[in-house]
């Protein structure tokens, strides 16, 4: 079964979505989380098995499927409403019950719709539902379910627990309670035991008497057989005696009487036929001689009649065209007057109006395009002559030099400001020398003095003396550093002042170059204002320069456009002259020398009317001459035929029709007469043949008389009557014999019955039956006496119990024991039934499960590129992976990736087993490859693609890696096969990947 169309009318985030999935191949459905993959999988399950309880509101959709037999169905699920249709028949059954032998949603999810968490090991093979659905199909798909139901019913009857509350447990407890209560009521156990023994003896006596009665009834039944067969036997013997009396006709032909009757009947029929034929033959010939001339002229009359319709139509056509001839002539004259204003006295008989229309259209188009050309004359938007710079103004190069000088002056101003700030900082901070080394030297001297005092005054360790020397060396180094820093400040100031003077000299040179008129001693503000003024002048010049450049460019562009415009005008002028020449050429060639372009349509319309009138008039003239010639021939032929037939009248169509009707009547009469004369001859021949047949049958009668030894017909009839009596007695005898065989039933009993019927009479058997009936009556009296005796014993037992409680307990115990026996019998029936079903199921599992494991091994071999296969232990409880060296690896030593590959192979093998035994189902795989590395994923996709050549497989994934690997495998298989299809799911939409 394949899904051929999905319609999600209103299903979660899907609304009015229609999708036709490929019927074969690996269909990779990629989408991120919350994109709708889970909803789409829920849709597929719901279409197959219906909605879960309480989970149907707001879900609408339908699905088209194609089964293995080629029939297509549509499954509808509209909230609680569900049905199926094949276009003609509507079904309200569930697909699983109708086609898949009761497959439920849970089993489908375990095998066909699996996710990563479902790859849970090969113990799925021990699942009872899977075993019954996939291994025991040959024994009936419901075998496992039936066995479970039987075991459940056994549990409903009995549980192995002293505290059980099931019916058999309760009844057993009641029996123990009855025994305890009965023992409590007994007071004389010896007498009570004797009475119980006597009661038991009455039961044995009763059984012996009943056995004797049964044996006696068998004797009666034996005697009933010959009694029932006696009347039939006597009737058969009487019939046999009659047959012996009629033995002289026993050899009479079995069909003699029937033959004699048939011959007599046939001879009578022949006599009757001869009488009727002779009566019909008494009439004379029916054909008349005057019909011969009509038969000779008939073919010519038929030919002439074929033209009667055409003859009438020709007369009507000539009469109808009389007025039309006048109209055509009037139309010619009127149109000729109109045409002469353009053509003169001679009107052309043929005109190339297509060429004229083309020439007129070309002339009109050229004139129109020339007008458009004149209207499209370009306008000059730029000044006629660009403005030249005024005399005395700086040139472009000078302005560019000024711009560069201004930029350099700006940089020098910034440099001068920086140098002045550094000089001001150095001068304001004195020498600008740091006193840090001096402070460090003072501290080191203090530390050295302290350590020296501790050594010399207090006698401390010599290490303190070394420390004092170290601090003293540090103090000397710090004083040397301070001295070197004291002479650096004046040198720095001198260097900055020189740099400042150089900058100011450069500024004065740049100012002179830019014509700024500034001195180095001026403030920065003066320099900035002057520079801004020069920049404004530079920007004005720049603007004017851009305008001048644009005007020049516009002038060049205008000149080019104007030249192009002139060229187009010259071209259209040439085309206009050519069109005018073509128009003049057409006018002179067509004869319409005075025709203007605007009058072309009017002239064509008038000429068409004139030409149609001329053509119609000429065509009718030719037609009329032909009609008159043929109608004259038909009239002459008709008058000639009328004279030969002796018919008065003129040669007209109406007279021809009347004569033709008369001819048809005569022809039919002549045919009938000829047929009658032919039948007359055939009747004479039939009479001769019938007389011969009568003679043959009379001879057969004589032969039959000679065969039976009869001399006369009366004697023959007497023998026929005796033979029929013999046959009736024979039939009675055979029926009686058959009845006796039915009564006897077996050949042995039949022989004994025949002997009894021959030896004895009916009285012997009736007397014996009366004896056995009396014996049965005596035995029944003894039974009554035994029952009476048992009643007295039971009454005594009841008295011994001081009340009727003992009897009631016995009776109640007996009643409950009967119920217990029924329940135990029912439980034992269930026990044997479940045992036999279990044995049958085990047989099918032993046969099927190794096939599934072997197939899974083949799948694993393909999936791992030949690295591994599978083996199962003898009892099927352990599974091993076998590598290339034939090393068996138990399940505990499998890697997670190898384990998932094996579990996937087992699931797919189970699915294929279901497909072979019942029907193929689409496989739905939900992100089962995420724990595979890239190599294993690629191998698995290769395997699924190969499996998809016949199956329909959906692989849902949110992994971009899996999707990319599927794309790579698709490219690898391109050209070889097309079994991988990529689709993207995004927010309730499904589209094919590009």
Automatic annotation (TrEMBL):
Region (Disordered) location: 377-399
InterPro entries: P-loop_NTPase (IPR027417), YhaN_AAA (IPR038734)
Annotated keywords: Coiled coil, Membrane, Transmembrane, Transmembrane helix
Origin: domain of life: Bacteria
Coiled coil: 762-789
Domain YhaN AAA as annotated: residue spans: 1-189
Entry keyword Transmembrane helix: yes
Any one Pfam family match given in the protein's UniProt record, by short name: AAA_27
Transmembrane segments: 437-457, 463-480
Record's compositionally biased regions (Basic and acidic residues): 382-399
Protein name (database record): YhaN AAA domain-containing protein
Organism: Megasphaera stantonii
């Amino acid at each position: 079964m394949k899904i051929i169309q999905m319609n999600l009318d209103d299903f979660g985030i899907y609304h009015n979505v229609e999708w036709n999935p490929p019927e074969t191949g690996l269909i990779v459905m990629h989408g991120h989380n919350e994109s709708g993959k889970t909803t789409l999988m829920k849709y597929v399950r719901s279409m197959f098995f219906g909605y879960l309880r309480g989970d149907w509101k707001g879900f609408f959709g339908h699905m088209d499927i194609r089964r293995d037999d080629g029939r297509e169905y549509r499954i509808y699920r509209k909230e609680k409403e569900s049905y199926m249709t094949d276009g003609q028949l509507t079904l309200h059954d569930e697909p699983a019950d109708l086609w898949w032998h009761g497959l439920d949603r849970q089993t489908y999810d375990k095998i066909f719709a699996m996710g990563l968490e479902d790859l849970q090991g090969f113990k799925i093979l021990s699942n009872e539902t899977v075993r019954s659905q996939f291994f025991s199909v040959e024994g009936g798909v419901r075998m496992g379910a039936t066995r479970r139901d039987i075991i459940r019913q056994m549990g409903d009857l009995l549980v192995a627990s002293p505290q059980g509350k099931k019916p058999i447990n309760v009844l057993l407890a009641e029996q123990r309670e009855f025994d305890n209560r009965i023992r409590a009521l007994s007071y004389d156990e010896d007498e009570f035991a004797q009475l119980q023994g006597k009661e038991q003896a009455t039961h044995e006596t009763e059984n012996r008497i009943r056995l004797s009665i049964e044996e006696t009834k068998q004797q009666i039944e034996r005697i009933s057989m010959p009694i029932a067969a006696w009347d039939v036997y006597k009737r058969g013997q009487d019939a046999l005696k009659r047959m012996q009396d009629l033995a002289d006709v026993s050899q009479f032909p079995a069909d003699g009487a029937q033959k004699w009757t048939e011959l007599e009947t046939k001879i009578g029929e022949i006599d009757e036929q001869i009488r009727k034929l002779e009566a019909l033959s008494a009439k004379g010939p029916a054909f008349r001689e005057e019909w011969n001339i009509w038969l000779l002229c008939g073919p010519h009359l038929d030919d002439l009649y074929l033209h009667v319709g055409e003859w009438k139509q020709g007369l009507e056509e000539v009469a109808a065209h009389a007025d039309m001839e006048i109209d055509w002539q009037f139309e010619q004259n009127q149109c000729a007057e109109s045409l002469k204003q353009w053509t003169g006295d001679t009107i052309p008989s043929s005109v190339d109006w297509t060429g004229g229309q083309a020439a007129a259209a070309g002339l009109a188009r050229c004139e129109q395009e020339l007008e458009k050309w004149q209207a499209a004359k370009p306008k000059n938007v730029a000044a006629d002559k660009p403005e030249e710079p005024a005399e005395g103004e700086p040139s472009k190069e000078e302005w560019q030099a000024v711009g560069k000088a201004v930029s350099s002056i700006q940089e020098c101003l910034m440099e001068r400001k920086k140098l002045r700030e550094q000089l001001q900082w150095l001068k304001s901070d004195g020498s600008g020398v740091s006193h840090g080394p001096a402070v460090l030297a003072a501290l080191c001297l203090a530390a050295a003095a302290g350590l020296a005092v501790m050594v010399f005054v207090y006698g401390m360790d010599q290490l303190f003396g070394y420390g004092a020397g170290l601090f003293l060396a540090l103090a000397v180094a710090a004083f040397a550093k301070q001295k070197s820093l004291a002479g650096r400040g004046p040198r720095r100031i001198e260097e900055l002042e020189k740099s400042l003077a150089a900058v100011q000299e450069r500024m004065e040179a740049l100012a002179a170059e830019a014509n700024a008129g500034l001195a180095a001693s001026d403030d920065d503000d003066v320099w900035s204002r002057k520079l801004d003024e020069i920049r404004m002048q530079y920007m004005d010049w720049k603007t004017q320069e851009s305008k001048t450049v644009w005007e020049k460019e516009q002038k060049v562009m205008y000149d080019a456009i104007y030249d192009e415009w002139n060229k187009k005008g010259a071209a259209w002028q040439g085309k206009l002259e050519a069109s005018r020449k073509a128009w003049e050429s057409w006018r002179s060639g067509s004869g319409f020398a005075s025709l203007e372009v605007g009058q072309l349509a009017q002239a064509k319309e008038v000429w068409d009317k004139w030409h149609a009138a001329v053509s119609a008039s000429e065509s009718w003239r030719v037609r009329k001459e032909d009609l008159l010639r043929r109608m004259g021939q038909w009239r002459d032929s008709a008058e000639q035929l009328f004279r030969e037939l002796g018919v008065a009248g003129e040669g007209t169509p109406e007279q021809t029709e009347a004569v033709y009707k008369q001819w048809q009547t005569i022809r039919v009469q002549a045919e009938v007469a000829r047929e009658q004369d032919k039948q007359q001859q055939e009747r004479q021949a039939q009479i001769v043949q019938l007389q011969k047949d009568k003679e043959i049958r009379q001879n057969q009668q004589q032969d039959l008389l000679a065969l039976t030894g009869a001399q006369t017909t009366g004697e023959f009839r007497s023998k026929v009557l005796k033979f029929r009596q013999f046959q009736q007695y024979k039939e009675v005898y055979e029926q009686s014999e058959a009845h006796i065989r039915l009564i006897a039933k077996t050949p042995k009993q039949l022989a004994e019955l025949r002997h009894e019927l021959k030896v004895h009479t009916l009285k012997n058997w009736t007397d014996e039956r009366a004896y056995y009936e009396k014996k049965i009556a005596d035995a029944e009296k003894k039974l009554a006496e035994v029952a009476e005796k048992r009643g007295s014993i039971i009454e005594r037992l009841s008295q011994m119990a001081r009340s009727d409680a003992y009897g009631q307990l016995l009776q109640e115990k007996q009643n409950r024991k009967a119920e217990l026996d029924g329940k135990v019998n029912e439980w034992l029936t269930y026990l044997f039934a479940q045992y036999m079903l279990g044995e049958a199921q085990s047989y099918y599992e032993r046969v099927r499960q190794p096939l599934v494991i072997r197939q899974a091994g083949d799948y694993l071999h393909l999936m791992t590129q030949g690295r591994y296969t599978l083996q199962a232990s003898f009892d099927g409880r352990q599974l091993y992976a076998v590598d290339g060296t034939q090393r068996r690896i138990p399940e505990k030593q499998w890697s997670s990736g190898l384990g998932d590959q094996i579990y996937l192979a087992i699931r797919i093998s189970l699915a294929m087993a279901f497909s072979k035994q019942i029907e193929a189902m689409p496989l739905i795989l939900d992100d089962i490859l995420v724990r595979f590395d890239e190599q294993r994923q690629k191998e698995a996709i290769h395997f699924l693609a190969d499996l998809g050549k016949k199956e329909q497989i959906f692989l849902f994934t949110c992994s971009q890696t899996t999707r990319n690997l599927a794309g790579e495998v698709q490219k690898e298989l391109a050209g070889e096969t097309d079994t991988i299809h990529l689709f993207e799911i995004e927010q309730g939409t499904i589209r094919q990947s590009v």
